[in-house]
Amino acid sequence: MLELSNKLLSVYSLTSIGLIFAVYKIFKRIRTNSLAKSYFQNKTVLITGASGGLGKAIAEELYPLGAQLILCARNNEELNKVKSNLMLKSGKEPEILILDVGSKLDVIRPKLDEVINKFKRVDILINNAGVSFRGESFTAPDEVYEKIMNINYYGAVRLTNYFVNKMIQDNNERSKAEQKRRQYSIVNIGSVQSYLGLPYRSVYCSSKHALLAHADALRGELFHHKNIDVINVQPGYINTNVSINALRSDGAKNNTNDDDHRLGFSPNYVAQVVIRSIINRDQEVIVAILLHRVAIWLRFFFPRTAAWVVQKRAQKLYGKNFND
Ligand SMILES: NC(=O)c1ccc[n+]([C@@H]2O[C@H](COP(=O)([O-])OP(=O)(O)OC[C@H]3O[C@@H](n4cnc5c(N)ncnc54)[C@H](OP(=O)(O)O)[C@@H]3O)[C@@H](O)[C@H]2O)c1
Ligand SMILES: *[C@@H]1O[C@H](CO)[C@@H](O)[C@H](O)[C@H]1NC(C)=O
Ligand SMILES: *[C@@H]1O[C@H](CO)[C@@H](O)[C@H](O)[C@H]1NC(C)=O
Ligand SMILES: *[C@@H]1O[C@H](CO)[C@@H](O)[C@H](O)[C@H]1NC(C)=O
């Protein structure tokens, strides 16, 4: 009898904790959504990789919230399409910035200086441009490693370093009271592969691991500028052209749309998560299905089991010719 009532008691308390948590989540969401209406009104947001996929979706979600957007990518035509589609609704005219984030700093710097001259500051930098990889790690040539690292890692780092300096300058010119109200954000679009080294994705995984480490170190160094947020958003599969645009070992595009991506999250859903992470000043947000979350846990707590899973996966994928 006592045992039964004990059991009932624990079921009861677990349900209550669950309910309290759910109510907290609902209230938090309501608060975030109401803040979103004014949060971006006077904010300038630079999005890299805005010509398609997730970057375009982030632009679509931010534009109606009143943000001044700066859309950055290499493809002028696609950027213009994104811009004119946005402008079917009312909002501030987006600026187009044609820039290969993999270029050297002496190419990038003058273009970013122009942005600062025109808009005075960038409040939010979203490092979203990225290229994936399909191939074997130990047969991939240096050039492919360099190309992908140069976009996914150095590209993000170059822009981050440039804008963090500008943010600090802008912040220092303000009174203490103003600083309290003002927020700046650096957002990195990572991946669940920021925590997992997956077979035949080595170059991509490494670039995302590196970016996460850089962000953590940077956040530490910003201890005297606590209103500059460093945010890592780590999505699982998203339904974009990423696998079509992925580079193979020979440096050519893979040109195949994986089922994983076709069945992934909608880019606009992930874009909304990104926006909420900025408002909520999150440091790290994983946007992934349970299986991928479990994989990340496994990697940390049971690394041998994780290694076994990775090998099984590699075995399954082997045989598909990554180099033809
Ligand atoms: N899709 C997924 O499953 C998934 C999952 C986790 C994380 N992510 C991450 O999400 C981000 C966006 O990827 P996506 O899925 O939207 O891929 P996508 O559809 O292939 O879009 C990639 C974007 O990056 C731009 N880009 C590529 N190289 C660039 C360069 N050198 N300089 C400037 N822009 C460049 C592309 O524009 P241009 O070609 O015009 O330059 C394009 O706008 C990436 O960081 C990716 O790693 C994606
Ligand atoms: C935006 O800036 C303008 C001009 O400085 C100001 O009047 C307005 O209140 C600001 N809006 C918000 C939502 O901060
Ligand atoms: C994928 O690429 C095609 C062709 O360039 C384009 O029409 C489509 O909008 C892209 N999809 C996304 C989600 O960006
Ligand atoms: C692209 O990569 C997939 C594995 O993810 C592979 O099955 C496919 O053959 C590759 N496509 C090309 C054109 O090499």
From TrEMBL:
Task: Report the Pfam families cross-referenced here.
Answer: adh_short
One GO molecular function term of this record is: oxidoreductase activity
Organism this protein belongs to:
Brachionus calyciflorus
Can the keyword Transmembrane be found in this entry's annotation? yes
Which family, according to the similarity comment? Belongs to the short-chain dehydrogenases/reductases (SDR) family.
What keywords were assigned to this record? Membrane, Oxidoreductase, Transmembrane, Transmembrane helix
**So which domain of life are we looking at?**
Eukaryota
Membrane-spanning ranges: 6-27
Cellular component, GO annotation: membrane
Q: What is the lineage of its organism?
A: Eukaryota, Metazoa, Spiralia, Gnathifera, Rotifera
Q: What is this protein called?
A: Uncharacterized protein
